[in-house]
UniProtKB/TrEMBL annotation:
GO terms for molecular function: iron ion binding; iron-sulfur cluster binding. PROSITE patterns: 4FE4S_FER_1, 4FE4S_FER_2. InterPro entries: 4Fe4S_Fe-S-bd (IPR017896), 4Fe4S_Fe_S_CS (IPR017900), ETF-QO/FixX_C (IPR007859), Fd_FixX (IPR012206). Could be a 3Fe-4S cluster-containing protein. Keywords: Electron transport, Iron, Iron-sulfur, Metal-binding, Nitrogen fixation, Transport. Residues 56-86 form the 4Fe-4S ferredoxin-type domain. This is Ferredoxin-like protein. To ferredoxins from P.putida and C.tartarivorum, ferredoxin I from A.vinelandii, ferredoxin II from D.desulfuricans. The gene is fixX.
Amino acid sequence: MTIAASRIEEKLYQNRYLVDSGRPHIKVRRHQKPSANLLALTRVCPAQCYELTDEGQVEITADGCMECGTCRILCEASGEIEWNYPRGGFGVLFKFG
Ligand code: SF4
């Protein structure tokens, strides 16, 4: 189990990411209290882009997002997040092999 996890991390480390400064492609709307789905993003995002602040807000730092769509499936329809692909030339660059 640990061996598999380290292999995945090693593979993910090969990816590159070009940050589009000041133009995050995913945004979290302000909320009184995070829903169960929104809160789950702090655990299920494979790039660990989501975190819960001391003020009880779920926030995102989209740098490193792998565009897997998990957060889009869980929270876009409810309006809790706004999800777009990065602009052309920005975002993740996958390295295979
Ligand atoms: S698309 Fe995937 S990697 Fe990107 S922020 Fe959402 S859950 Fe994380």
